Amino acid sequence: MSITPIFEAMNHLDKLHKSLLGLSFKKTELIKTGDMEGLDQLLKDEQKHVAAISQLETQRQQKVMEYLQAKGFANAEPTVASVIEAAGTEEKEQLEHVRDELMRTIHDLKWQNDLNQKMTYQSLQFVNLSLDMLRPTPESINYSKDTIKRAKSAGNSTFDSQA
After folding, report:
1. DSSP of the chain
2. InterPro entries, alphabetically (predicted)?
3. 118: domain range?
């Protein structure tokens, strides 16, 4: 069996992850500008990308299982490392290159998503701070028993100045 379908699946996964990374960069700009409608649409696009990546990853695993079974590794896990072990020298180098490229893209995507998460959290903190400044503080609006007792005790003096 040829290793070409696995290469194609991994290359396609890398392209989808790079596209998702591009959306993540756009998300950063939308968070900076506060464009909620654009952010909502971008989140829908991200969900489509994630669904496509998930489906393609399932296909990749299936192709890896087929390749490993054809090579006599029936009990191996469907990982790229397993395929690298079973592949020939030239195929190993190609697979390692594709794997490394995909890993770099995923690392960049993770870093960008962490940045977006931090920016979103800071924006939320700013909104909460602004709301706290606008809301009245819940100080003692009504009288409590303690304030009434203090007022009575302050008014009941043992010395009557009018007598």
Report:
1. --SHHHHHHHHHHHHHHHHHHHHHHHHHHHHHHT-HHHHHHHHHHHHHHHHHHHHHHHHHHHHHHHHHHHHT-TTS-S-HHHHHHHS-HHHHHHHHHHHHHHHHHHHHHHHHHHHHHHHHHHHHHHHHHHHHHHSPP----S--HHHHHHHHHHH--SS-TT-
2. FlgN-like, FlgN-like_sf
3. 4-135
CATH of the domain at 129: 1.20.58
Q: Tokens standing for 96? A: 């390692």
Q: pLDDT of 89-129, one tens digit each?
A: 888 888 999 999 999 999 999 999 999 999 889 888 888 88
Rounded to two decimals, the pTM is: 0.74
- What pLDDT is recorded for position 149? 63
